[in-house]
Design brief:
Layout (H helix, E strand, L loop, with lengths): L11 H10 L6 H13 L3 E5 L5 H11 L3 E6 L6 H4 L1 E3 L1 H9 L13 E3 L1 H7 L4 E6 L6 H13 L1 E4 L3 E4 L5 E6 L7 H5 L2 E5 L4 H11 L5 H19 L5
Parallel strand pairs: 1-8, 1-9, 2-5, 5-8
Antiparallel strand pairs: 3-4, 6-7
Helix pairs in contact: 1-2, 9-10
């Protein structure tokens, strides 16, 4: 059972409360960015080092909004067939061999939707997570721009498919390469740094049952020092 009153819009305070309920310690900058993304209906671009909680924002947001989570994991060489749609060639071939008309094989019955098409055609509230976009190439980024502008996909055999419900889009970036200005301009931008000692302590107390405040503080201080030594090149 959903423990909160369903609201049309969520304030930053609502977001912090609900994120914390689902195990995510959400500070003010994160809550403000998520709030703006929802209100403006713009993608949220989250940058930061691996392990700072970028992907988790999308997962928790889907729980908060009671929405479906559709994840697109980016990698080098990702192409349209893997993110938009493919035709079910085996099913089409069997259909033709059964004596059916060839022109009938290009219908939604033979379409295999991939993450972006699934997100656009989903009738339910949807959070679309485009994870580690920096691992994909610039051609994919350009294709994504077109989709995020109008939330529609053109399929030559079927025409243009428009979003039934505009998905909430979270894009994560590990900052291994620069993204295009055109993509950044279309998004609400959020940078997540490594947590402070206080935030690390709050995360530990939330995540680890039975952990004493003193132990949480000592672990948080140790992690903070380790990250500082690593940044100075003292450890690898």
């Amino acid at each position: 059972m959903f423990p909160f009153t369903v609201k049309r819009t969520l304030s930053p305070e609502d977001i912090r409360e609900r994120f914390f309920y689902y195990g995510y310690v959400c500070d003010e900058p994160i809550a403000e960015a998520v709030h703006l993304s929802l209100v403006l209906e713009k993608p949220l671009l989250v940058e930061g080092e691996p392990g700072v909680g970028k992907t988790e924002i999308a997962k928790v947001l889907a729980q908060v909004l009671q929405a479906d989570l559709i994840r697109l994991q980016c990698y080098e060489g990702l192409d349209e067939n893997k993110v938009l749609y493919e035709w079910n060639y085996q099913k089409q071939l069997l259909y033709i061999q059964g004596g059916k008309e060839v022109q009938d094989i290009f219908s939604e019955e033979f379409l295999l939707p991939r993450p972006l098409l699934k997100a656009i055609t989903n009738d339910k509230p949807t959070v679309l997570l485009i994870d580690e976009i920096d691992k994909a190439d610039e051609e994919f980024e350009a294709m994504l721009l077109e989709i995020l502008s109008d939330f529609q996909i053109s399929i030559p055999e079927l025409g243009t498919i428009k979003a039934r419900r505009k998905p909430h889009v979270i894009i994560t970036n590990n900052d291994t390469r620069d993204l295009s200005d055109a993509l950044v301009r279309r998004c609400v931008y959020l940078y997540i740094d490594y947590p402070t000692v206080e935030k690390e302590e709050a995360i530990l107390l939330k995540k680890v049952k039975g952990l004493s405040p003193l132990m949480a503080r000592e672990i948080a201080l140790l992690m903070h020092n380790l990250k500082g030594w690593r940044a100075c090149g003292k450890i690898f």
